[in-house]
Structures are given as structure tokens and as C-alpha cells.
Design goal:
This protein is mostly helical. The chain has helices spanning 17-20, 31-38, 42-46, 48-54, 58-63, 67-73, 75-96, and strands at residues 5-6, 14-15. The chain has a two-stranded antiparallel sheet. It is elongated and about 55 Å long.
Amino acid sequence: MSEFLQRRKTAPLNWNDFGATLLSDVPSSVKPWALANMGEHYPAFGALTYGVQTGKVPFEHAHGKPVWEYYKDNPVRGANLAKAMAGMSGAVLKNYY
């Protein structure tokens, strides 16, 4: 079917355990992490070669400012990053402890 959805006898489709981690209202959600990585961090990933060649920070090259200044100027994205870090920490703790 899909890596995120599964068929069940009681409903046409339900989230499987992997897909459920992308929901907003679940403990250890990775949705904020995915949004940050596919949002503001994505252009920086594309500048990794620039970083290796110059020794400069790809995020600064992509956005014209250091990462923490970017988040200060973009508080909604900064709040999402905080949720992302908490969610990823929770996911690690849930799976390893």
C-alpha cells in the first residue's frame, strides 16, 4: 500500500505507526522536523558544495544571515524548530529508553 498508510478491516485507510509520526497532535511528532528540513533548511542543503569549497556556512549563504538571527527574524519558524527539536528528542527517548 504505502509506507505511511495501511488498510484495516474496520476502516478504509489508517495511519500506520510510521505515518502517525507526521501528525501534529501526537507525542514525539516529527512533522515540525520535516517542515523545517523541507522549508528553511532545504536551500542550505543545496549549498553544501559551496560550504565545502569555501569553508563558509551554507545556511548563511542561502539566507544571508546566521541561523539564529534567521529564527529571531522569523519567530513562527523558530517556534516550529523548537517543536522539531522536542519532537525528535522525544522520539529518540521513546525508542531507546
